[in-house]
Structures are given as C-alpha cells and as structure tokens.
Design brief:
The complex is a heterodimer.
Chain A (H helix, E strand, L loop, with lengths): L16 H13 L1 H10 L1 E4 L7 H21 L8 H11 L3 H28 L8 H23 L4 H12 L8 H9 L6 H33 L5 H4 L7 E4 H26 L22 H16 L4 H18 L1 H4 L7 H26 L6
Antiparallel strand pairs in A: 1-2
Helix pairs in contact in A: 3-5, 3-11, 4-5, 5-6, 5-11, 6-7, 6-9, 12-13, 12-15
Chain B lengths: L8 H4 L4 H44 L3 E3 L11 E7 L2 E7 L5 E5 L10 E3 L4 E4 L4 E4 L5 E3 L8 E7 L2 E6 L1
Antiparallel strand pairs in B: 1-10, 2-3, 3-4, 4-9, 5-6, 6-7, 7-8, 9-10
The chains are: A mainly alpha, B alpha+beta.
C-alpha cells in the first residue's frame, strides 16, 4: 500500500499539535511499525527469568562509561601531564572526584555484570544453535571490556597504575622469541613511560570504542533476531505451558527498574567509596606494598604466579599462559561440543565444565587475595 | 499462554475518568522522581563543566598585582605585558618618566593590543583600533570605548598596579 507523506490524522476529531507532530514524524520514519514490533515481541517468563536482566544492566553501565568518559576527556591530558591532570580532576575541578569515581566504579560493575551475564547465558545453554554468534560476540565484548579496563587503569599514571601495567606487560614478554618485541611495541619502549600513557589513551578512547560499539550492535541485533533463549527446563514443557510477557511495556518497565537499581548502586558506591589517587609514578621508588591487579585479572595473575613457582625460569609462566589460553578457547568453542543433545549427557558435561571453570576462577582469585603481603 | 499484561496505549485512551485520575497521579509522581534524578545528575555535571569559569571569576576579583622587581627597569618609551587576574595588561614607561598601566584587551572584539613606540599609541592589529597610551582613550578605528586604566604605585623600587 502506498503511503502518503502528508500528515493525515486518522480520526475526524481535531488533532492536537502533539499528534500532528507524531503523525508527521511517523509518516517519514515508520515509528508506529517499531512500536507495533515492540508490542508484538514477547519475552519468555519462567523461574530463571531474573538472569535475562544482566545483559541490560551491563549495557546500562556501558552507557554510563561513555558519558562519564567523555566528561573526563574534557580535563584529562595524556602524556607527561597525565598525573597532574588527574590530580586536578580529583582535587581541583568541582565534582571531578565524583565523575572519576563514577567512571571507575561503573567499569568494575560493568565487568561484574558482564561475567554474571556470561555465566547465566552459559548455564541456560543459550550458546546453542542458532545463537553461536551471540555467544562469540558476547565473549568478544567481555575481552574488549577487559582490555578497556587494563588500558584505562594506566591513564592516571599513579604508582599503582604504573606498576600494575609494568607487571601486566611482563606477561606477553614471556612468549619465546617475539614476546619482548611485542611488549616493547605495546609499551613504546623498554619501560612504562609517557609514550605508554599516550598509546593506551589512544587505544582506550578511540580504538577500543571503534571495535566495541559495532560488536555491541551486532550482539544486540542477534538478540533481537533470535529472541531470548529459554533454559532446558522450559524446553521440556509443551509449548502451551510456556509463559511469556510482552516486551513492551512489561519487560521494558522491569528493565528500566533494574537500570534504576543499578544507577542507585553506582551512585552509592561512587560517592561513599570514592576512587583514590596514589603518588605520581616513580620508577626509582619501590612498588607499593600489597600491589595486586584488579579483581578481574586476579585469577589469571595467580595462575601465572603458581606456574612460575612450579616450573623453573620463564617456562612456568609461558606454560601457564598456554594453559590459560587453551581454557579460553575451550570456553569459546562450547557451542561445538554441546550441540544437538538438548538435555542429554553432553549438556550435563557442559554444566560440569561450567561449574569447574567457576570453581577454578573463584579459588585462584581468593587464593590471589589471600597470599597478598600486608599493606603496612 | 500469556500473563495478563498492562493495557496497551490504545486501551488507555478508552479508560474512564477515575483511572485517568490515578494515571495522572502516577505520571505526576513519576515525573517528580525523574526531575529529582535529572537534577541530582545534572547539577554535578554542570558544576564540573563550569569549574574553569568559576576559577576565572575568582581571578577577576583580583584588585591588586605587584609586578616582578625588574619591571622598574624597563626602558622609556616601552611596555611590559603582565596579567591582571586573567586579563592581559600592559605597563607603559613614558618618555617623561611617568607610568601608565591599562588593560590590553581591545574593547572591540577582545584581541590583545600592543604598544607601538614609534607612534606612542596602543594599537590593535585585528581591526586597527588605536588608543591613547596615557589615558587609554579610543582614538580611531572600531573600538567603542577606552581601555580600562589601572592605578600605578611605586614604592621601594616595586611597582604595584591596582584597580582605580
């Protein structure tokens, strides 16, 4: 049917200015089709529905990161003046401490909710066909998120940032032959310096967003295309017994409520536990006592440390690195192992594997924190 | 099978007076909450962005500046640029050993004007505004008003410039 571009109120009653504007925009943008689609879209409703919100919560924190990041960009100066500019943001600029604290807390909360989202998707077996690309793109987003975290951590260039980056970049350096070359290229020299800050800055604010945002769009598009995955317990039920709610307004309103809770948690954390700033980085000073990576790197840090203790020289770290990457590959390729048999032996094996991975991550993380030397 | 869902927008229009009143109340409370959140987020962001403006405003409040010790030694028929608060300003040492201090910000469009020893005037290269070097009065060109004149005090070989 051909559509007219002129605003034609459907009813004979006099149209208010708001309906006139709506009709005008609708004729050009097809807004009512989108709303109709959103109203028709249904979200499964069952006892595991709670886990559906975590992707949205992760997205919410990402949006906060974008806004607070742009605000920090206004006063931040990469290179030699990095520490001084962050000191100004934290202590001189009005509410600068709050913006910075919000950015740091949102980063941690985003990764935490991304982990919850990934594991809930895993245990609901949401990675199975036809959602393999949703699983892979989600995993890619998590990895990019961690690189975001690592690169952003250096930018204040205080002593913790300096040594954390130094230790972090010593990891690729253990790869035989090419390792030191790769590490030098990332650092922009044999040691962490002002060049490292500048290139991490470029990575953090241009390269990573340019990769992250299209991948995020792809991920969301796939979620839209395939709809929500349902867990095995729901699949066993006949179609007629499965419950669902409309996406709009029911699910969208609950999603919004979750975002509000996330906002409140973020505001509380950022204002009650403001992110600190250490002394300016100084390569001549010994590393601060109790220095450790952020919690999301603690597990890999501890695994490498343990392998380093068990085997002589750099061979241990390298072996640890290989094992860790093998684990990651196994995790990513799970849709190929657990395929057709929906709740058979393979699905149970996948569950055990997931529990095993969580156990390893938890144990090594707790271990990592437990063996930290005292800070005083 | 589906759970009972909220009425669709089409159904809302058909609601009776009673529920419209309740709906209006919910809208009002929701709007008030929304406004509180917007204010709680907007206010820190506004102050954050406004911070340099506030700082500059504090500098504007400066009423007196003591110039570096070598200011007294500048030759006759020359000028020394300095900042009065954040404003570029100049100190002129005249041939008759008198001193003038004035704002160097052209009153036309805010370029920094400079002293021209050959003509003994203050000249703004942006649009050719010319000022009297002793009084700051606008002589020719587009400037609509004279430059702000400061008071110069010399004691113990130190020059202090203050608002008149």
């Amino acid at each position: 049917m051909e559509k007219s571009l002129s605003a034609e109120p459907k009813s004979t009653s006099p149209a208010t200015w708001s309906t006139q504007i709506w009709d005008w925009a609708d004729a050009r943008l097809g807004l009512s089709e989108v709303i109709h689609l959103a109203e028709k879209k249904r979200v499964p409703d069952h006892r595991h529905s709670f886990w559906y919100y975590w992707g949205g919560i992760t997205l919410f924190f990402f949006i906060v990161m974008c806004f607070s990041g742009v605000l920090l960009l206004i006063y931040y100066r990469p290179g030699d003046g990095a520490y001084e500019s962050v000191r100004q943001i934290t202590y001189d600029i009005k509410f600068g401490w709050l913006i910075r604290s919000t950015h740091s807390w949102a980063a941690n909360l985003m990764l935490a909710s991304a982990f919850i989202h990934m594991f809930s998707a895993y245990f609901m077996k949401a990675y199975r066909g036809p959602r393999e690309f949703t699983w892979w793109s989600g995993f890619g987003l998590l990895l990019l998120g961690m690189v975001f975290g690592f690169s952003g951590y250096l930018l204040p260039m205080d002593d913790l940032a300096y040594f954390a980056t130094k230790v972090g970049l010593a990891i690729p350096a253990v790869i035989p032959v090419v390792g030191p070359w790769i590490a030098n290229l990332i650092r922009g020299g044999p040691d962490v310096n002002a060049f490292t800050v500048s290139r991490f800055f470029a990575l953090h604010v241009v390269v990573l967003p340019a990769l992250f945002i299209p991948l995020l769009m792809f991920h969301l598009l796939l979620v839209q295309k395939h709809g929500m995955s349902i867990p095995e317990s729901e699949e066993r039920k006949p179609e007629s017994e499965r419950m669902s709610v409309p996406f709009f307004p029911n699910f969208a309103m609950k999603d919004l409520a979750m975002w509000l809770i996330a906002l409140n948690v973020l505001a509380l954390m950022a204002s009650l536990f403001p992110w600190g700033l250490g002394d300016a980085a100084d390569s001549l000073k010994p590393a601060p006592m109790g220095i450790h990576p952020e919690w999301y790197f603690m597990s890999s840090f501890e695994v490498l440390k343990l392998f380093g203790q068990w085997f002589p020289g750099e061979a241990g770290e390298f072996l640890g690195l290989i094992l860790f990457n093998l684990g990651l590959i196994l995790w990513v390729l799970i849709p190929f192992y657990d395929t057709s048999s929906k709740y058979g032996m393979r699905a149970r094996l996948a569950t055990y594997f997931g529990l095993f991975v969580i156990a390893i991550l938890m144990t090594t993380t707790i271990w990592g924190y437990a063996v930290l030397p005292p800070t005083h | 099978m589906s759970k009972e869902n909220l009425p669709s927008p089409a159904e809302l229009n058909e609601d009776d007076e009673d529920s419209m009143g309740r709906r209006g109340f919910i809208k009002l409370v929701g709007g008030a909450f929304g406004a509180c959140y917007a204010a709680a987020i907007g206010y820190p962001i506004y102050r954050y962005l406004d911070s340099p403006v506030e700082e500059a405003a504090q500098e504007t409040a400066v009423t007196q500046v003591t110039l570096p010790p070598d200011a007294i030694h500048i030759p006759k028929n020359s000028a020394l640029m300095f900042r009065f608060g954040y404003k570029p300003s100049m100190l002129i040492h005249h041939d008759d050993d008198t001193w003038t201090a004035l704002s160097a910000v052209c009153t036309h469009l805010g370029c920094t004007a400079g002293y021209v020893p050959a003509r003994k005037v203050i000249y703004c290269p942006c649009h050719g505004g010319t000022y009297n070097a002793t009084t700051g009065g606008n002589i020719s060109g587009p400037p609509p008003k004279p430059l702000t004149l400061y008071k110069v005090q010399i004691s113990d070989g130190k020059i202090t410039v203050s608002r008149t």
